[in-house]
Amino acid sequence: MLSDAEWQAIALSLKIAGSAVGWILIPGIAVAWLLARHEFRGKSLLDGLLHLPLVLPPVVVGYLLLLSLGRHGWLGHWLYQWLGVSLPFTWQGAAVAGGVMAFPLLVRAVRLSLEAVDPKLEAAAGTLGANRWRVLFTITLPLAVPGLLTGAVLAFARALSEFGATITFASNIPGQTRTLPLALYTLIQTPGKESAAARLCVLSIVIAMLSLLASEWLARRARQRLQERDR
Amino acid sequence: MLSDAEWQAIALSLKIAGSAVGWILIPGIAVAWLLARHEFRGKSLLDGLLHLPLVLPPVVVGYLLLLSLGRHGWLGHWLYQWLGVSLPFTWQGAAVAGGVMAFPLLVRAVRLSLEAVDPKLEAAAGTLGANRWRVLFTITLPLAVPGLLTGAVLAFARALSEFGATITFASNIPGQTRTLPLALYTLIQTPGKESAAARLCVLSIVIAMLSLLASEWLARRARQRLQERDR
Amino acid sequence: ADQVQVYAAASMTDAMNAAIASYEKSHDVDIVPVYASSSTLARQIANGAPADVYISANEKWMDWLEDQDAPVSERADLLKNRLVLIAPKESQIPDFTPGGDTKIVSQLGDDGRLSVGETSHVPAGIYAKQALESIGEWDALQPRLANGDNVRAAMALVERGEAPLGIVYETDAMASQKVHEVGVFPDDSHKPIVYPLAVLNPDPSDSTEAFRRWLDGDDALSIFSKFGFTPVDAD
Amino acid sequence: MRESAESIASAALDCRLRKQLGDFSLDISLSVPSSGVTALFGQSGSGKTSLLRLIAGLDRPDEGHVRLGSRTLTDRAKRLHVPIHRRRLGVVFQEARLFPHYRVRGNLTYGMAPSARRRFDDLVSLLGIESLLDRLPGTLSGGEARRVAIGRALLTEPELLLMDEPLTGLDGDRKQELLNYLVRMTRDIDIPIVYVSHDTAEIAAIADHLALVEKGRLIAHGPLDDLMMRLDLTDRLGGFDAATRLLARLDKHDDHYALSHVVLNDGQRLKVPRIDRPLGAQVRLRIGVRDVALAREMPSGTSYRNGLRASIDAIEPSPQSPSTVEVLLRLGDQRLRARLTREACDEMQLREGQSVIALIRSVAFDAQSR
Amino acid sequence: MRESAESIASAALDCRLRKQLGDFSLDISLSVPSSGVTALFGQSGSGKTSLLRLIAGLDRPDEGHVRLGSRTLTDRAKRLHVPIHRRRLGVVFQEARLFPHYRVRGNLTYGMAPSARRRFDDLVSLLGIESLLDRLPGTLSGGEARRVAIGRALLTEPELLLMDEPLTGLDGDRKQELLNYLVRMTRDIDIPIVYVSHDTAEIAAIADHLALVEKGRLIAHGPLDDLMMRLDLTDRLGGFDAATRLLARLDKHDDHYALSHVVLNDGQRLKVPRIDRPLGAQVRLRIGVRDVALAREMPSGTSYRNGLRASIDAIEPSPQSPSTVEVLLRLGDQRLRARLTREACDEMQLREGQSVIALIRSVAFDAQSR
Ligand SMILES: Nc1ncnc2c1ncn2[C@@H]1O[C@H](COP(=O)(O)OP(=O)(O)OP(=O)(O)O)[C@@H](O)[C@H]1O
Ligand SMILES: Nc1ncnc2c1ncn2[C@@H]1O[C@H](COP(=O)(O)OP(=O)(O)OP(=O)(O)O)[C@@H](O)[C@H]1O
Ligand SMILES: [Mg+2]
Ligand SMILES: [Mg+2]
């Protein structure tokens, strides 16, 4: 039913979007927690920086990534010299691009949920001898699950659909970085390939829907557990 | 300091992003409320549809907009015939594109906050004689202000940076639809225009930062009002 | 098998895919095409993309690459294209040759727009601007333009009937079922539309050399011709 | 003036409700008279809150109905469920549930009926929350929040008040004042109150009717005074602090000693701390079972002011304590309960039918009498 | 066995705290002995919760310190503030504050000390929450949630227990059991408890010390029995239900009548409902001021079992009620308070220094004695 190239693009997209979410999950939660529960100097600045990928056109972000993480970039140079890692034009690079673009969405959703967690419960946990880490992992994060799920699914969807930054930073290399949206782009560039494009379009939708349903299901379960008597 | 073209792009961007947020705000809140507080058939489907703009490459969304809202599209045809409204090539069209792209972000954030509103308070308002609308406007929404703000700022940022769908649906017409990202894109595609591009890049960042700071300030005020004794 | 990475302008996608398919049938080599706008590709190559061959849709980006001290070698103009005026398939606009008696603007109606690639950087747009200037319609048409992100976007507007007329490459016009060619811009109304090709690997493999040579050959050119390109040395 | 328990008006609230909540099943039929306070009493987890929630329409029953006066609020069979906001009920929840984004004033006026506006100031000062009106609820103390919640519900001028342990966390004086206010209110506005409490003193002070709930079932229901006489319920009615009530008429005020003299309907007299009501008014006196001592004849030279001649109706061992017996006394047509040690009962050789003196100290009367 | 109020050990908790909260200013110095229960008593909004919060470290004082034994928990001057989780305090909040995502069992074990594991089952059954262990808190009734919250705090084996109205919303029996448990616990483990309550009966049953708070200031502090004798505090100590306590020694059990005989230290005897403690044990008997009647000599033919010869130390008008006087009695070195009507006092011509009989009914003794 699907061509090899299509399967390849799907597998690649999933791998890249999954990795993207994977690598930003922990830092995203950490940053969201910092922003939600702490006051420090430069908080606004950090907050602003986080939102850059959202505000700038993706192509610009991709370009900035290329400038910094490219082999001649200040960070990329270092990465290559010391770790032998080269990100541009690889699927890892695509995951980085996707992650960067998805980061603000993840942080925002998680932060929103963290801020909604009742600090009274955290204080109660404190009186029961839990240090701030235990409080974080046993009270705050579990109660922020809806936000974590929302954040993760938004991030996954964003990474899955990421195009501009990816094509600029990681290029459009079949089997390496040609994800669904890039494949779709390639088709759409070509007059007369509308039906093939439509197929990919539907595929993207199906994948997104599935991930969405999964997250909804998880969120519902999480919410049901917390159900109080007033609904 | 800034050229006329730059000022024009800034003004246009603000107008378009502002309108985009403006027109999706009410529907976005309504949909978020539906999803957060009601069970109905086709809920998952609606939820999925909402996320499409997030999942599909923007260019595809722009193309779909063209198919439906273009002058020969099924909806656009109707709009033109009855209301004389034609969206492609106009700033209104750009606002539509920006709004569509921003919609899922708005809905998600608002929904997350609505779900965090304690249904016990809504029930209490009910016993005080408030019907569901009064409950919505006096209890639910005011308590979801953090989510509304987050949603609005995400949506604004997204609309401000919208590129792919806009250029596809509304084209890149100076003074009409050439927003900051489009102008930026144009520069970046031209060899030797890096410094001009960097200027616009910084401009975008400044605008985004300002809107962000404003929303943070509002959110902080809202939160302080609700401060309980455990922080 | 050896791998050869070919960075080609997005407008060549179809033709290039066909050429590669044909080449791979008779050669034990893996040709990997990478499509994006010429500018994106050029920037990536300047930043160390593993490209063996680069085919740009215009000379500017190839020049730019050379300025960046990229290892551009064996540069040559590979293909040519023509600029055409198109209209939706069902359009009532009669065929005419731009630059003749019929003015384009007169065919646009009251509020119709002329769909082109962005005239400042999209190659098709740049050529369109040159052409319009040379036939003296630029001033009249400039406020009536709809600038697409790329040729494809420009054509989509025409296909959908949003714009009554558009300017695209002949190759694009040929590929689409939904537009028809109203007329061809005179060759001398714009700079020649050439697709320069270069090898970018300072130490090209044999496969690269072979493929590059094949691209220049008759087999390849006949395939490209089928998609509407003209070989550079055809005339 | 409102008559006492005898003159029960037609049922204002009538409900028959069945609901399964996890392992817990609630199955209760309850009729509440159209005025006066019906206390819901029962152990923690017996289903009091669940019942209130069903009446309020916050939950839907699996089966049954709720009727308030002539209005049907819920009827499962007819698939009728009047939404909460149209039930015109005032609810004081077990927790305060204030709206955190409204100031105290906003919370109070949120559901305020226009007709209640003139009561606003009085109620606020009665609740002692004048100085809190411009505060946000987040900073209120536990008791302050409760008081605001009570005020909020009272200001809606409901047709039925549901109060779930409204006075917990309030100090004695404030509690007393609020109890008096509620009693006055039921007398003036004639709305029924369903009142959940664990505090027998509170119930004795306020309730006309009592509904005893256990494990989701109603195990007894009726006028408070009748239930208070039932020995089988002693255990459940708070044992140690059990009390009965006597109906009497205010006969005389003794201003010098700040006492009031009252007459029971069999003509016997009692001296109690001054009651600020007009002469001739009916008052109800709450008398703890522990506060009644018995004597063969009126002892002299003691601080006892009150000795009532009574006959012994019954003597039964306390279900609760092996050392005591409960003695049911009859005074005219009223009944009174006394608790003695078994030893005292034996030594005094008390028998059913005997005539004795019930000694009641004047200081033993709660000021709560009305 | 622990001695009574007299033998106050060195202060375990010592704090001097000043804090401004909006218009409310708290300024309290308090020392709590190293074992026994110190009750915090005061009107709603007087600052009890605020004080507990400062001690627990949930708020930082503007000035002052908190010391627990040899540990300094807070010291503003030294900028020291031990974080909550290292204070080893057990806190029962005014609301339950259960973790909604943990089952009841998870809530109980969240902060459980390994050494408390063996007490788990006992405590759970005492709290009556065995059947709730696998439930999520969202569905618990108000009282059930409270009990879980109490259990959760007790299982941490803290060095200081801070309890903010822990027993509100619980029914009489359960309350009684829990009070007994707490008393037993302080006796066994010797940790101090700071206990906020509005219920004087509860306080009389459990507290050794009393701290009276008003408008953010400590207006009285000392052994409960001493404060109970202070007439100027009657009003604040719940007036109607004021009580004093007598220390006595268990002398004999009367199994037939289920009574116990106790001896006061001046040799006089009392009969009380059976106390399940070994002979020779010291017990404290709570006697309500309303439960003591006076007589010139022991009346015969009444149900009174107990008459104690006492001398009148003082007679003072009740600040609270114009109709009554408070009579302070002396029995050996102990004191007892009685409340009479002014009329009775005049008629009996009671004078300071006179010798009288204090009549106390056996049934008037709370089972709460220990
Ligand atoms: N959704 C549910 N699932 C399981 N059990 C429930 C549920 N809701 C309530 N219960 C149980 O029903 C019983 C009655 O609860 P309810 O709140 O009515 O008690 P209550 O009489 O108000 O007690 P309290 O005096 O402690 O407030 C409780 O044992 C409670 O645990
Ligand atoms: N942040 C604040 N701003 C203004 N006033 C405050 C603030 N926090 C507490 N208060 C006030 O301080 C007083 C003491 O509060 P606290 O909670 O300590 O009272 P409490 O003695 O525990 O009363 P309750 O018995 O009602 O629980 C209250 O009047 C309260 O309104
Ligand atoms: Mg309840
Ligand atoms: Mg408090």
Assembly type of the chains comes to: heteropentamer
| pLDDT averaged residue by residue of chain A | 86
CATH topology of chain A: MetI-like fold
N- to C-terminal separation of chain C?
A: 37 Å
Query: What integer value in Å does the Rg of chain A equal?
Result: 20 Å
The ordered H/E elements of chain C are EHEHEHEEEHHEHEHEEHHE
Instruction: Tell me the Rg of chain C in angstroms.
Output: 18 Å
**Coarse shape of chain A:** globular
Q: What structural class is derived from the secondary structure elements of chain A?
A: mainly alpha
Poorly predicted residue ranges of chain A: none
Order of helices and strands of chain A: HHHHHHHHHHH
What's the story with the biggest beta sheet of chain C? 6 strands, mixed
Helix content of chain C: 25-40%
The number of helical segments of chain A is 11
User: How many discrete structural domains of chain A?
Assistant: 1
Count of DSSP-assigned helices of chain C:
9
Number of strands of chain A: 0
Largest interface comes to: D-E, 79 and 79 residues
Helix-strand category of chain C: alpha/beta
**What is the average of the pLDDT values of chain C?**
86
What does this structure look like?
The complex is a heteropentamer, with two copies of chain A (231 residues), one copy of chain C (235 residues) and two copies of chain D (370 residues). By secondary structure, chain A is mainly α. Chain A has helices spanning 4-37, 43-55, 58-69, 74-83, 91-116, 119-127, 132-143, 145-161, 164-169, 180-188, 194-226. Chain A contains eleven helices and no strands. Chain A starts with a helix and ends in a 5-residue tail after the last helix. The model of chain A has no long low-confidence stretch (mean pLDDT 86). Chain C is 35% helix and 26% strand. In chain C, β1 (2-9), α1 and β2 (29-36) form a beta-alpha-beta unit. Chain C is elongated, with a radius of gyration of 18 Å. Chain D contains eight helices and 20 strands. In chain D, the strands form four sheets. In chain D, strands 7-8-9-3-10-11 form a six-stranded mixed beta sheet, sandwiched between helices. In chain D, β17 (306-317) and β18 form a beta hairpin. Chains in contact: A-B, A-C, A-E, B-C, B-D, D-E. At the D-E interface, α4, α5, β16, β19 and α8 of D face α4, α5, β16, β19 and α8 of E. Bound molecules: adenosine-5'-triphosphate (2 copies) and magnesium ion (2 copies).
